[in-house]
């Protein structure tokens, strides 16, 4: 055995354990009876401790040192070593007491958050959230010391390898300057449209599910390596070669669940398209959260909210639900699926206003981690940001800074990946359509073969072979900037009315 | 920490891992898309290796030695030590090469068996099965050496702790002498009944499921700690506090799936009724396979195929399916559910003829393990046994010695527990009804509270506190014998026509 093959076998075991955890987590969210919660939590905790034991195994350092001087390795193997070193550096950066303290603080804070959100009671959450923040700052500092990064960039790096706030600042400042005025413009255009006729329900869950499955098949989802189920919070999860997505049906409105299915299918296509030869190795993993979100948003926002797709999809919707009248026409459907309306809640936001929610959170969490703002000031700063970025007056903290679970659950540094993903999606979709003329006409016929073929070759099949910037430059000719995203918004919301 | 608390914590971890494996196995059989098979097999193999590592941990021997001389322990703790020593003795009896060789031989043999059964090709299976048998013999000898048992008894002991073939020989010889004549008698009685009118389908799956759920609730199944789903082979599985059962629906005949659900509910009630305070310890486990089977057969054969239950259930069946006519009357339903008919296939056999299938397999596997019979002689010996015990002439090995997966999959020593379970069920049900007069009238009203209450106190809640013989003696006043089972058959099939 060479050091490389030892490493590879070891990470294969870590993948086998992660796959088990992935399925147990899916079951937890989709199938588990509620009386099993405690038993399941014990199993999950044990498997996570076992995985941590494997991923911090002292032999990894020795194997890495030896393998990195092995001249016989190819590009994938070298990239695998780069990824293994990155993960291992981070995994071994934290003293186990800090990991444990953080895990406990998060559990307590999440539980308190559910109540505090319901009660719009920020003061009640404050001490719990302060503890989580304090520990996140320590975690960021400990990782940052090893990586030569600020605490915030070190946290961000876990979700977005190679992501740096200095670069995000520039991208987000560009967008923040553009969006408020653009939103007004788009809404003015929208106001000149005829009133949107209502879709008359009810829409049976089984019919919604059947239509979702039909569109998943059109997008190229492989049902032999996945499933569609129901959960409270839609997600894409599971394991290698077992990529499961979920949705939540509302019998008074099918449009959200349907578009949610297409969004999760975008995530799933990425997971199903990762390189089979390296599936259980770090180099075979998805490249990062912004690229992952780009794949869901490429399908949802770029492809499936397009006029072309909705011209194909609207008649199928009408036929499935036995609808009739102008509400079911494809232009009405397109107007419905591209409606702009500033609001308080991020997860309900449309394509145009969503980035403002993210930019606000990004700026706030960066200041909080850096200690430039006191946590007690969060509600006021939040509400001021919502006013200036979106022009809305937040009535209470339930609809304000208490709405998301990310901060209570320790997900600091995650938020920017949503909007990086939206920008990346626009840039990739634009490049794909320019490279392959059959993509847009294909989408108009429900044939996603050309699009997915291009994505397989240029994104999915590359796994973590290249750093994100290089991957994007190879695929689109340049690193990420805001220009294509802004042009896309202008085209869809102003020009293409 | 005392040695006992170290042991207890260690076995708590083993339980957490076993619970994870249980849910992954359930998912494998119920939910998993087929393209995930290889990935899942890797996860399962890893978790099983990890569990084996925990259960053969060298510290267990030291902890056991110390804890066994701890005078402060109570009855449950002492029984837990007894169980831990039993399991540990067996788990550490085998060299790892033997475990691995056996696991490989079983995989190869199972795969070959599927084809051989389809082709009725015993000769094609022979070399694979010979290898499995050879390794089972070695495993039995290695365990037997540690336990002071014959190879066969050592294998049996894994499924039926304390079970001994010398005792089973006596019980089964008793039954074997009784059954052929009794079967003829019962069929003569049956022949004098009016012809059984057919139930006209189809019977929608959803209706079958709803009725199954209704009866599960009547039996006392706790839906907050379990689920009902569909799988090719019905089973009861899952994890502590997460006891899941499955069935398989046939829209032309609801009676099998419905009774199958009641059978699995019997298993599930045992699992859900194990002592909460000891759920994750060996002493909290179900007592053994014959007692487990006794709980499913008590519900299915003793309670739910009774005249009393079917008088309550038949009108509900009729109402659910909108049935009409004499086929739906409770006496017809009882005749249908107590029909006797010798056949080739064990899993299709009725209550009267089932033991003959088991006795044949038991005698054959005992002779094969002892080397008293050559494997090549199996088909002829099988067919001769079927002729003498059941009076049927087996047309080919697909309907003969190739029908069950147990031997190809290494389950030698398992078969007798089916019929021990049937006898145990009769003895327990008889004792329960004598101790608690409200049980039978309750069953007649769909109220299983008195029955389950008695089982909770006398069987389920005891876990593995007592050896099987003692548990049964405490509950029924005597160790297992064939008398009550024979009396039950005589009452149901001769007297109570």
Automatic annotation (TrEMBL), chains A, B:
Protein name as catalogued: Metal-dependent carboxypeptidase
UniProt keyword terms in alphabetical order: Carboxypeptidase, Hydrolase, Metal-binding, Metalloprotease, Protease
UniProt function note: Broad specificity carboxypetidase that releases amino acids sequentially from the C-terminus, including neutral, aromatic, polar and basic residues.
Entry's family note: Belongs to the peptidase M32 family.
A GO MF label: carboxypeptidase activity
Organism: Bosea robiniae
EC identifiers of the protein: 3.4.17.19
Pfam families per the UniProt record, alphabetical: Peptidase_M32 (PF02074)
